[in-house]
Predict the structure of DUF4249 domain-containing protein.
Amino acid sequence: MGYFSLLLRPASLWWALLLLALASCIDRFEPTVLNASVGYLVVDGSINLNGVSTVRLSRTQNLSSKDAPPAETKASVFIEQEGGLRFPLLETAPGVYASQALNLVPGKRYRLFFRTQKQQDFASDFVEAKTTPAIDSVTWQAGAQGLQFYVDAHDAANNTRYYRWDFEETWEFTSAYVSGVEYRNGQLTSRTGEDIFHCWRTEKSTAIKLGSTAKLGQDVIAHQPLTLLPPTSEKLGQKYSLLVRQYALTAAEFAYWELLQKNTESLGTLFDPLPSQLVGNVHALSDASETVIGFVGVQSVTEKRIFVDYGQLPRTWVFQTGYEKCVPPDTIPGPHDLKKPPLPLVIEFFKSGVFLPIEEIQIGTDPTKYYLYSSAECVDCRKRGTNKRPAFWQ
């Protein structure tokens, strides 16, 4: 053993003991902000120039809560044209308000006005309605990291400059096991009801996607990345569809979304920017000091949908199914004849719906017939989606 190793051993031991002592003095830190119940009003939505406008009203809650944000219900909500008409929004779900399909006038100024159940009035600033240009294309490229999607757009008049996108993903999938037998009215019979093997699932994006051409000579968005699916994604196992929506923003609305993006997506390391106070365009009319979160823009919305089939993807990709935790099916004794009433034990077993029969089987020369079964989560695809084929599906 070298001289320096012998010399450093006591020092290393001393530091280890010191760190151990410091660790024993550490108490769990729970900042008071986690339990603060602030209840600020949140306005999420925009005014659609040519279509249905949907706005969600809710209240903030403390960070430790795992419940959904409290909905602001029974409010009276209107779209107002400056110096002119009012268009009502009706509550279609708790805290969700929607208008009829409208055809508002580009260049006119509109705002959102609403009165809460407690008779407090709120309104967004009047904003000039912007016309959103069409999406030129939505494309994808397969690479080592997975399937990358891109959007391209342009405004020949150079009037847009600020863009935002959101998207919806829909994919087709099947459950782990096909069921040919069903429990119905106290009996086990051949399945003639709904298909519970083929389903579709839709998810809305939560990421904030922005683009700007303010510093470019031409108002052209080229190959803007949207979303990346890993090469093992269960969404790509059969057929996948991406619906992209595009919004033209004002400079003020773009700044709001950009700050919101930084606050929600760029935090986590020592070198990330500190969160900043969001300043939207919605205000309490009776108390200017009251905090309201949200920015209500006014624009038309353009959209484009594409499909990606399993056969278009690299053959080396192996996709997850979402059913990896499903164990092989088990068996339970059944009657000698499927037409005979099943045993009471079998009836009770399937009555709750926790387990579903898959098929009737016979093992070797044993005259007893059995029912192969598994958990409903592994047999019924409706647990994860819907078996109603989307109208747009190709």
Q: What stands out?
A: The helical segments are 3-23, 251-265, 344-351, 376-379.
